[in-house]
Amino acid sequence: MILELKISNLVLIENVHLDLDKGFVVFTGETGAGKSLLIKAVKLLLGEKGGANYIRPGAKEGEIEAIVWGGEKLSQKLQEAGYSPQEEIHIRRIFSPNRQKVYINGSPVTLTELSKLTKDLILLTSQHEFYTLLSSEKQLEFLDHFLELTPYLKEYQELYYKYKSLVSQIKELEEKITSSQLKKDFLLFQIREIEELKPDP
């Protein structure tokens, strides 16, 4: 849950500060008022890719920051990632023409790390969200959940990753064996060539 959101110099937004920790919040407005831009800002805050094209014209850099509450789930994710466990985090993302910076609680992180830490903390939906029900991946997810197969799925995934890793190692070893055999054959060929020449010592 987002408790506080600040947006500076993002596309058409010059400066917005939203306090969202009290009650139910609704954004309304005419087409073009900037509702979708607020959603885009949240997506960027959660790790969606974006660059200098989001900087407001005339500004040197754009910035989005927020305080996000995630409860015990967030605390556990932070601990697993090597951070101090806590139920709230401060996220800050800065866009500039040459590079962008991402911080969590003041420490620099990558977009990948940001995405992993914020995954499932905030749910974004739209009027077309029902189309996800047509996804075979989503249907399998619902089926696994309904049949209470999620724990077995995780176990299967772990075993599958181990299997893929072993297959990769075997392939690498086979390639090394083939390479060694080729070198051996080449050296034997050279030895035969030398022996046929019978060079004087």
TrEMBL record:
Start and end residues of each Rad50/SbcC-type AAA domain: 4-185
PROSITE patterns assigned to the protein according to its UniProt record, in alphabetical order: SIGMA54_INTERACT_1
InterPro entries with a match to the protein in the record: DNA_recomb/repair_RecN, P-loop_NTPase, Rad50/SbcC_AAA, Sigma_54_int_dom_ATP-bd_1
GO CC terms in record: bacterial nucleoid
UniProt keywords, alphabetically: ATP-binding, Coiled coil, DNA damage, DNA repair, Nucleotide-binding
GO BP annotation list: DNA recombination; double-strand break repair; SOS response
Coiled coil among keywords: yes
GO molecular function: ATP binding; ATP hydrolysis activity
Coiled coil (UniProt feature): 156-183
Keyword set includes Nucleotide-binding: yes
Superkingdom to which the source organism belongs: Bacteria
Function noted in UniProt: May be involved in recombinational repair of damaged DNA.
Annotated family: Belongs to the RecN family.
Protein's name according to its UniProt entry: DNA repair protein RecN
Organism: Thermodesulfobacterium geofontis
